[in-house]
Amino acid sequence: MVSQAVTVDVAGAPMPGYLARPDDAMGPRPAVIVLQEIFGVNTEVKRITDLLGASGYVALAINYYHRTDPELNEPYTPEGMQNGFRAAAAVTKETLRADVGAAIDWLNEQPFVAFNHIATWGFCFGGAVAFVTATLRGISGAISFYGGSIAKPMPDGEPPALADAAEIRCPLLLVYGGKDEHIPASDIEQTQAALTAAHKEFEVQVYPDQGHAFFRDSGSMRRETDAATKSFVPDAEGTAHAVADSWDLVEAFLSKHLQ
Fold first, then answer.
1. CATH number where 102 lies
2. What total of structural domains would you count in the chain?
3. pTM of model > 0.85
4. Residues 6+ apart with CB under 8 A from 108
5. Longest dimension (CA), the chain
6. pLDDT in tens, 158-177
């Protein structure tokens, strides 16, 4: 696998990115744009990107804080969360669509990418961003893991991502933890109802015993973070099952919609 830092041009402004892809000669591959949590393009975001690259995809993690906080890399602590939300509050749906649109164009220009075989996969705030990107041309599928601003206002105060449900152009995979203190069951139900009413193609998977960010690497990191924020502390064995099962769902979704 090849991994490297790259720069994507967004209307004349440089957007940093992290790229991971197979290093074989099997020809162009489908691509996945990885959308960060509020904490920045950190080790965890790069781990997800590497996971996709090792699985045969071209994966590109983009830094949509590049206009205001290009170096943001916050720890999973209450202070880090506060700084992350401050950075996210400077991001708008318009800038997100511009950044992802530029990433689509950049990927389509690469000889190792299968033209217009591109999906997005986001986590937490990035999960809501993935929902927003489903309105763009050139996206074949969007995956949202515990997207916190789908049924709630965006961090900058704009209406929820769900307000744009009628404009969605591609299938969605929405994954949640049933004990996520940030996303109540009513938000999930509202999302399902709106997508159904808009006649959109989507899948929803809820893991009843999981909290927020269950896919994040390192059970000890997750437990320490949850204890610091006084949130639900997951069972390690149950989390391992949810992680493995949700990865299977992601692989099946990408195989179906990117091939």
1. 3.40.50.1820
2. 1
3. yes
4. 115, 116, 118, 138
5. 48
6. 999 999 999 999 999 999 99
